[in-house]
Automatic annotation (TrEMBL):
<feature type="binding site">
    <location>
        <begin position="11"/>
        <end position="14"/>
    </location>
    <ligand>
        <name>FAD</name>
    </ligand>
</feature>
<feature type="binding site">
    <location>
        <position position="336"/>
    </location>
    <ligand>
        <name>FAD</name>
    </ligand>
</feature>
<dbReference type="InterPro" id="IPR036188">
    <property type="entry name" value="FAD/NAD-bd_sf"/>
</dbReference>
<protein>
    <submittedName>
        <fullName>Tryptophan 7-halogenase</fullName>
    </submittedName>
</protein>
<feature type="binding site">
    <location>
        <position position="345"/>
    </location>
    <ligand>
        <name>L-tryptophan</name>
    </ligand>
</feature>
<keyword id="KW-0274">FAD</keyword>
<feature type="binding site">
    <location>
        <position position="186"/>
    </location>
    <ligand>
        <name>FAD</name>
    </ligand>
</feature>
<dbReference type="InterPro" id="IPR006905">
    <property type="entry name" value="Flavin_halogenase"/>
</dbReference>
<dbReference type="GO" id="GO:0000166">
    <property type="term" value="F:nucleotide binding"/>
</dbReference>
<feature type="binding site">
    <location>
        <position position="78"/>
    </location>
    <ligand>
        <name>7-chloro-L-tryptophan</name>
    </ligand>
</feature>
<feature type="binding site">
    <location>
        <position position="349"/>
    </location>
    <ligand>
        <name>FAD</name>
    </ligand>
</feature>
<dbReference type="Pfam" id="PF04820">
    <property type="entry name" value="Trp_halogenase"/>
</dbReference>
<feature type="active site">
    <location>
        <position position="78"/>
    </location>
</feature>
<keyword id="KW-0547">Nucleotide-binding</keyword>
<keyword id="KW-0285">Flavoprotein</keyword>
<dbReference type="GO" id="GO:0004497">
    <property type="term" value="F:monooxygenase activity"/>
</dbReference>
<dbReference type="InterPro" id="IPR050816">
    <property type="entry name" value="Flavin-dep_Halogenase_NPB"/>
</dbReference>
Length: 509
């Protein structure tokens, strides 16, 4: 039986990313139709979102102009996550920090990690292996106004307004990929004899029947979890963060725009701070077992300042974990309906984009291939989720903070997966290598681990260098520093470039 009629249940960033990926993949196939069904009664969660560099490739793949995206979505450039106070203040000083940069830490193609380990006290790891930290600390943009769209002097992603982003994606999907947009509430589901979904019952259009269903309904997981009964695997014993209080903080539009997300640790979690042109998206992320809502709100107020009294705050409970399966019969869950961990490292949009692309690469056009593709998808996505949890856990486990029960408890080695425990043991004697990451479904790879490990002062026994190696690597380090100084002098402050792009645009590739 052919699969021609496809329904996406739920809009927002997840639903419209799926619509664009599938629309692009099936463009020109006259027998295929895609309908996105969206309820206006369900609010979106985003208060300003962070992305990773993969989003540049995605937007370019969709045919979206970078200049239009920046203007329409209040986007700013993101080149790093700056982790502040994740280490003990007495040992490392007040306001200690490190950067998880987006540039690869292999300047001139050579890994300087062992060279840095032999001289670890002289400078931070990120300054030795990358010129991008200097760009970030000077609040500079990653590109010139003359650089083509999606090209830059450094690797970058974006901060963006999630609601405006979903609107832009919706326009692109409906206008360029012929995706139909239906506004209604899905009130029930009819199942078929095989245990899949036969049809949706809606308030405005009655019964709507499709061949394949994509669940982008958010935390409710209305199709896969609620109606098909796929269990949720709770991971709260591994990741203790389960709440966030969010607020949008207006700015005067004149401040210097930081080209990174701030992640500021506190006694029971951390604070995100995302700069957009006219506001900051701030979230106080915490573990409710270690801090009450009242204390969390008080600490958020202290961070934001007295203006918070006139602003609207919102508490978001977090279901930490993921579904036992993500694809069952003719239904796939993508986005929050699939799973969620705390927003450290911008995992939500990253995993959504990854899974939407994975689905679109081999979307089934015949029921005969459903079982094979479902198994492949479930295996790969389950692996990806397990590695996301490993990477987020790593940040807490490596911290040497002991100033609260939270920071003491998150360093319990038994909370780690066996694979992560083995890697950490190996990395005591050998720095990470690409062979430690053997699957293309590793959402975070060697470069991510290197920045976090050595930003958090992880100790690896250095391998001895001969004089020739040391001289060659010292020369590379000097070139990195020289290029950092060059970019610091040549690149434009971020807000200035954003304003120029809105006025003049960028050169299309």
């Amino acid at each position: 039986m052919k699969i021609n009629k496809i329904a996406i249940v739920g809009g927002g960033t997840a639903g419209w990313l799926v619509a664009n990926h599938l629309g692009k993949a099936l463009k020109g196939d006259k027998s295929a139709s895609i309908t996105l069904i969206e309820s206006l009664d369900i609010p979106t969660i985003g208060v300003g979102e962070g992305t990773v560099p993969m989003m540049r490739d995605t937007l370019q793949h969709f045919g979206i102009s970078e200049a239009e995206f920046i203007s329409r979505c209040d986007a700013t450039f993101k080149q790093s996550i700056k982790f502040e106070n994740w280490l003990d203040k007495d040992r490392h000083g007040d306001n200690n920090f490190y950067h998880h940069l987006f540039d690869y830490p292999f300047p001139m193609g050579e890994d300087l990690t062992n060279y840095w380990l032999n001289k670890v006290a002289t400078s931070p790891y990120s300054q030795t292996v990358s010129f991008q930290e200097a760009v970030c600390e000077n609040n500079l943009a990653p590109k010139h106004i003359t650089d083509p769209e999606y090209a830059g002097q450094t690797t970058y992603a974006y901060h963006l307004d999630a609601k405006k982003f979903a609107k832009l994606l919706a326009e692109n999907a409906t206008q360029n990929f012929d995706v139909s947009h239906v506004i209604c509430n899905v009130t029930d589901v009819q199942l078929n004899k095989a245990g899949g979904i036969r049809s949706l019952i809606t308030d405005n259009f009655g019964e709507l029947e499709f061949d394949f269903y994509i669940d982008c309904s958010g935390f409710s997981s209305y199709l896969l979890g609620n109606k098909l009964g796929v269990k949720f695997i709770d991971q709260s014993s591994k990741l203790l963060i389960d709440r966030a209080i969010t607020v949008q903080v207006p700015t005067n539009g004149q401040e210097s725009l930081k080209p990174y997300t701030r992640a500021v640790a506190h006694k029971a979690g951390w604070i995100w701070d995302i700069p957009l042109p006219h506001r900051r998206g701030v979230g106080f992320v915490y573990a409710s077992s270690y801090m009450s809502y009242e204390e969390a709100l008080q600490k958020l107020s202290h961070y934001v300042g007295p203006d918070i009294e006139s602003l609207t705050t919102r508490e978001i409970p977090m279901q930490v974990g993921y579904r036992e399966r993500f694809w069952q019969d003719n239904c796939v869950a993508i986005g929050l309906s699939q799973g969620f961990v705390e927003p450290l490292e911008a995992t939500a949009i990253l995993v959504t984009d990854f899974c939407a692309q994975h689905l679109a690469e081999r979307f089934p056009r015949d029921r005969e291939v459903l079982a094979d593709l479902a198994k492949r998808f479930n295996d790969n996505v389950s692996y990806a989720w397990s590695k996301v949890i490993d990477f987020v856990q790593l940040h807490y486990y490596l911290s040497d903070r002991v100033d609260s029960a939270f920071w003491q408890d998150v360093k319990n080695e038994q909370m780690l997966s066996e694979d992560l425990r083995n890697k950490l043991l190996r990395w005591k004697y050998f720095s990470p290598k690409s062979t430690d990451f053997t699957s293309k479904y590793e959402v975070f790879d060697i470069e991510n681990y290197l920045y976090v490990l050595y930003g958090m002062k992880f100790l690896t026994r250095p391998q001895q260098l001969n004089s020739v190696e040391e001289d060659r690597m010292a020369e590379i380090e000097a070139k990195v520093k020289q290029h950092a100084e060059y970019l610091s002098a040549e690149l434009t402050e971020q807000r200035e470039l954003i304003d120029k792009i809105k006025q003049y645009g960028l050169t299309a590739i």
